[in-house]
Structure formats: structure tokens, C-alpha cells
Amino acid sequence: MSVTVDDDLWSAVGDPTRRRMLDLLLSDGGGTATTLSEQLPVTRQAVAKHLGVLDRVGLVHGTPSGRERRYEVDEAQLARAVAQLSSVGATWDARLRRIKQIAEAIQRGQQS
């Protein structure tokens, strides 16, 4: 399976705070910058900026909720990210198997 890797998407999820935010949004069924900042060691303003990054790559979508926006994870985009990760992982697994085969062949040649 060949999947095109989206660098912007992986840049967004490369940040540990944003990954934690995605975890919280998934477990809580959504949230606002305020509710997320109460569970994270960063300010509400920092959370809002992180949510903006996640929104730009389509991993979350915000809808107005009073004076704030309520964010939820876009499960289709998250599934796309998981497919990309699986594809990249499979590619690296194949490369590492090939490297191991080469190293074993070299080692057998040196033992002869």
C-alpha cells in the first residue's frame, strides 16, 4: 500500500503537546482551549495556537460554543494519518530487514 506522506500533517503531530491535546479531545469527546489548558502545562493562549495548527491540517474542527470554539477530532483525517504512519512503518521494516540480510551475508562471508 503506497500512501503519500503529508509533511504538514506530521509536523503538526510531531509536537508532544499537540499529541496530548488530540488524546484529550478523543477521550473527552471534544473540548475548548480553556478546558484543554486546565489539563495541560501550557497557557490557554498556547493551547489556542496549537489548536490552530491542528485545525489547519484538518485533524480538528472547531465550532462556535458561546464565547469559545469547541474542537473535535476529525476521525477521517486521523485515520489518514494512521494510514500514513503504517505505510512509512512498513517501508522502514522492509528496509531494516534488507539491511539485516546484508549484514548477515557479510558476517557469513567473514566467518568462511
TrEMBL record:
Residues 1-93 form the HTH arsR-type domain. The keyword Nucleotide-binding does not apply. InterPro entries: ArsR-like_HTH, HTH_ArsR_DNA-bd_dom, HTH_MetalResp_TranReg, WH-like_DNA-bd_sf, WH_DNA-bd_sf. It comes from the Bacteria. Pfam families: HTH_20. Keywords: DNA-binding, Transcription, Transcription regulation. NCBIfam families: HTH_metalloreg. This is Transcriptional regulator. The lineage of its organism: Bacteria, Bacillati, Actinomycetota, Actinomycetes, Micromonosporales.
